[in-house]
Description:
- The protein has helices spanning 18-34, 52-65, 80-92, 103-115, 180-190, 206-215, 246-251, 256-265, 278-284, 299-312, 315-329, 337-346, 353-359, 361-364, 372-378, 384-396, 402-416, 420-432, 440-447, 449-466; strands spanning 5-8, 37-42, 71-75, 96-99, 138-141, 148-153, 157-162, 170-172, 195-199, 222-226, 229-230, 295-296.
- By secondary structure, it is mainly alpha-helical.
- The longest helix has 18 residues, at 449-466.
- The radius of gyration is 32 Å and the shape is elongated.
- The structure holds one RNA strand.
Amino acid sequence: MKKIITRFPPSPSGHLHLGGARTAVFNWLYARHMGGTFVFRIEDTDAARSTQASVDGITEAMQWLGIDWDKGPYFQSQRLDIYREHIQKLIDGGHAYYCTCTPAQVEDMRKKAMETGGKPKYDGTCRQKGLAGANGAVVRFKIPEAGVTVLNDAVKGRIVFQNGELDDFVICRGDGTPTYHLAVVVDDITMGVNTIIRGDDHVNNTPKQMLLFQALGSELPTFAHVPMVLGADKTRLSKRHGATSVTAYRDQGILPDALVNFLVRLGWSHGDQEFFTREDLIEKFSLDTIGRSAGVFNPEKLLALNADHIKASSPGKLAEHLMPFLKDAGYQATPGSYLEQAIETLQARSRTLVDMARDIRFYFEDVTVYDEKGEKKLFRREALPPMTCLVEKLDALEDCSHAALEAVFRSVMEETGLGLGKIAQPVRLALTGTTVSPGIFEIIAVLGKEKTIARLKAAIAHIEDTTDR
RNA sequence: GGUCCCAUCGUCUAGCGGUCCAGGACGCCGGCCUCUCACGCCGGAAACCGGGGUUCGAUUCCCCGUGGGAUCACCA
């Protein structure tokens, strides 16, 4: 069994979007599953479109997703000599030729062919000329005139292409730089890549690349073309569909594990299982259960999955991901057990880290304003006796365990003759400033006696100030 | 337009000839639990694109139609 080598080769001309992230995840998972190697390569042969900002952005997104690479990043712009060598090899071997047709001429022949109902392809004008490398001449690959190229795709099965449908594409530009097809194939050969998992928008490129592999005397890799990710309108995912960059999801409070889980499940399945940890994925991922049809991106489901991952995550790990949000909000939060306990009370009720950062506020800041509606409804004079009673009992309490607190509330209920609902709501408003929060015992247990009593007293004073006798 | 791919609930999907009056998940609608909100639990509505074959039997295999997508650069 040979060692599996996969790769992810983005072109640095924008951010890492969901579709790209998914193919990165697939390649990474497959390599990990097979105990293989995952190569990261930057396809920047088009200098005009490539930017350092994109390289940085993509790298950052990969790291956030937790996709680590074993080799690279390689930059095609630094491998020009290697490409030139292979181009020369193709020319020498009669697989490629120089062409001096101008872009305008080629454009023209395509247009004419289109008008007469023919195939819009290069007509082979320079094919037999045996031109020597002239200034500004391009190099074209010589496609076999007859026959077929058969792709045995790992997910789509057997696909047959008529070579006659292909045209002699450019492999080397007038300025001597290689084009995409040439560079990819040479890279994959020289880097030992033997498994290529990519979007199925590449299937039509595949025969050209297969021919290139063969002309260079190299064994064919395994191809696995995975279906596209579409937007709700069933067209290719783009900015129109809202946030599509990976980092945008990070900023919306999505956990990397949730996004990875979601992306993989879009197009791949393992029976009825929906929730996967990273380890789970590595163990179970395989090429043969990748679906064949395109999938629509469904933000609701991502959110639901994110909620599940938040629930399943450890408070410590969540704290790491939450810290940036807390900093942004300006809270005086530091990593540690207080933070983790606070997080624990919110795990079941947060769909995103943004939700959590919002709802965690009262743990870090004193309550200065009360929810208006809640105040009107709950901060009446009837609330005074139970609150006062609670303060007294709390004051005498040694430990603030959940059980002890429950006992305290029970006795307050007995003394005042009120139900828990009548007592808990005003207390909640006093402690959090809102009418919605985690359970009242949980809150007090985390907040501690001091803060709880101080807030209760403040609320009592507030009620006395604002209500009539 | 040529070429290529795809087709199960609104969406993600299970199903690899009979176990399917089609299963799970998200969302939606009821109910339960309950100190609020969630969580959780229980229940419900909701799909095999159409037509031909093949077969004792098609959601599953084949063909055609229809619909959707991808791609046709000196971009990747």
